[in-house]
Amino acid sequence: MDVLQQQxxxxxxxxxxxxxxxxxxxxxxxxxxxxxxxxxxxxxAELLAACGAEVHVHAESLSDMFAALIARxxxxxxxxxxxxxxSWNAATFDGAALAVGDCETEAEASAFFDAARKxxxxxNVIDKPPFCQFQFGSIVxxxxxxxxxxxxxAAPILAQAIRRKIETLLPLSLQDWAQIAQRLxxxxxxxxxxxxxxxxxxxxxxDRAFKASPDNDSxxxxxxxxxxxxxxxxxxxxxxxxxxxxxxxxxxxLKAVRALQAADVILFDDLVSDEVLELSRREAKRMxxxxxxxxxxxxxxxxxxxxxxxxxxxxRVVRLKSGDPMIFGRAGEEIACLQEAGIAVDVVPGxxxxxxxxxxxxxxxxxxxxxxxxRFVTGHSRKGTLPENxxxxxxxxxxxxxVYYMAGRTAGxxxxxxxxxxxSTDTPATIVQSxxxxxxxxxxGTLGALSFGIGEIGFDQPVLIGIGKAFxxxxxxxxxxxMAAEHFA
Length: 489
Prior knowledge:
The structure is a single chain. By secondary structure, the chain is α/β, with parallel strands linked by helices. It has 4 domains: 31-136, NAD(P)-binding Rossmann-like Domain (Rossmann fold, 3-Layer(aba) Sandwich); 174-232; 238-350, Cobalt-precorrin-4 Transmethylase, domain 1, CATH 3.40.1010.10; 354-488, Tetrapyrrole methylase, C-terminal domain (Methyltransferase, Cobalt-precorrin-4 Transmethylase, Domain 2, 2-Layer Sandwich). Helices cover 35% and strands 17% of the residues. The strands form 4 sheets. Strands 3-2-1-4-5 form a 5-stranded parallel beta sheet, with helices on both faces. Helix 1 (39-50) packs parallel to helix 2 (64-72) and helix 5 (174-191) runs parallel beside helix 7. The longest helix is centred in the middle third of the chain and has 18 residues, at 174-191. Residues 1-10 and 476-489 have low confidence and may be disordered.
């Protein structure tokens, strides 16, 4: 299979459907219309003036808040308020950039909306969605960094809660760093070539911005970094092996998200979820290089060649692997191949399936009453059978918890081998399919019934098999699906 030629239906959509298009509008020095003198209109007027707009307020009377706002003025050097006093008319909209109305009745809202549209001015009527061509989101302000959140009017309180979450994640010093970036951008563009060299600089800049507040020497240090890159940066790209976890995008590490956001190309496994891919940079090229037992798969040699080709072309490549890349992910082969070619490579670990399984089941794999060790074992060799060199006597230790990866097709043989090695057929066993995903299903039973269990669960989707006393279900089976409890009974 040629990994460089992907069919369109093999690549997930880059963007899920959007309720509204998020747009940031330049209003510096532009005239905008506010119709109404209420507190709600005052908030919109203050927001528009903060963007540098000349806010013309058409209202015969103003609320105390609005009057105080106009008397105080605005801190923006180009923003200002003009209290017109009289109501709006058709000529009011000539040359305006935006129009915002606070209308009491549907008839007033309809008239304001129609007049603005006739003049070609985008219009918003406060708290009346049918008369809004655009909406105001909930804002996190680290200007020039601005984050806006919208729920399309469905749940404004939810948008406010999201804003509070983001406020805690973005340090106030981000505003100072963004201003430094604004001042230096042209200087950096003049020094560094567009593409990998420039992106590497900005990645390093981001590392600085999230570590500490800038001081008097920060700007000079940033310029020194650019000067160094201009004379010493290699034309080679780099490869990052990233653990995508078991499927739930919320289980990704922050470092993994950073790598996805910086990638030019993402080579992803068949088991990586669409939710995880959704966190990648929109411009990044995505290439499916999945390997699944019993199905048409990419050869490892082709994957290695693709990584080398892209990195030598100066691309930042993310090799996105299900679970943790260092556990049953052929990471060793890929790292050796890249290092031999002189390509920089690093690894971002992920949550391996066994850890996610324990979390979902609410058990400890090393509960001191049940197990003194834990093992992760592959149930699938190159031939599609159980590996020939497994230590069955060791695996049959009743005081060890064992989790078998890729063992769906070999579950029956696995149970037979363990039983022959002396492990009791009453030993608890659990099968989980599509771990952490919306279609997750479970079977809970014993080693002796494992063949029955895999027959019920199936192995068209990835399965994980856990064997050992740690998997004994609690007296209450509330944590297990109805199907699992039924099978265990």
